[in-house]
Specification:
The chain has one domain (about 5-120): GTP cyclohydrolase I, C-terminal domain/NADPH-dependent 7-cyano-7-deazaguanine reductase, N-terminal domain (GTP Cyclohydrolase I, domain 2, 2-Layer Sandwich), CATH 3.30.1130.10. By secondary structure, the chain is α+β, with helices and mostly antiparallel strands. The protein contains 4 helices and 4 strands, in the order βαβαααββ. The chain has helices spanning about 20-25, 40-45, 55-65, 70-85, and strands spanning about 5-15, 25-35, 90-100, 110-120.
Length: about 120
C-alpha cells in the first residue's frame, strides 16, 4: 500500500495524567503515516486524486491543540477517528505521539506511543 507521511509535526497541548501537564502544557511531536492508494494521483497529477496532507495536518492540530486528554493513547485514537471520518481514501493509519519532556525524573530522549488502525 502507498503511504502519505507527516513527520515531526509539533504542537503545544495540555494532555497528561498529571495536573501540571494539563495546566502548563508541553510540546507533542506527532508522526502520522496514512495508507492510501495513490495510483490514480501518480498518473493524473491532480490533488483531487490524493489526500491533501495540509488538511490532515489541520485535523491533527485541532485535536492536539484544542482538546485536552489525560492519555496520549486517547489523543492518538481521536486523531485516527477524525482522519477516517474526514478522508475516505485513507485505509489505515499509523500514528506516533512523543513527549520530549514528560514529568519523569531520569535521563531519556523522549517517551511516547504508537497506534496502528485499519478502517473498519
Amino acid at each position: 500500500m502507498d503511504k502519505i507521511q507527516l513527520k515531526g509535526c509539533r504542537f503545544y497541548g495540555y494532555h497528561g495524567a498529571f495536573s501540571e501537564e494539563q495546566t502548563l502544557g508541553q510540546i507533542f511531536v506527532i508522526d502520522c503515516t496514512l495508507s492510501v492508494d495513490l495510483k490514480k494521483a501518480a498518473k493524473s497529477d491532480d490533488l483531487e486524486d490524493t489526500v491533501h496532507y495540509g488538511l490532515v495536518f489541520e485535523t491533527i492540530k485541532k485535536q492536539a491543540e484544542q482538546k485536552k486528554y489525560k492519555l496520549i493513547e486517547r489523543l492518538a485514537g481521536a486523531i485516527c477517528q477524525d482522519i477516517f471520518d474526514g478522508f475516505a481514501p485513507v485505509e489505515a493509519i499509523t500514528i506516533r505521539i512523543t513527549k520530549e519532556n514528560p514529568p519523569i525524573n531520569g535521563h531519556y530522549d523522549a517517551v511516547g506511543i504508537e497506534l496502528e488502525r485499519v478502517r473498519e
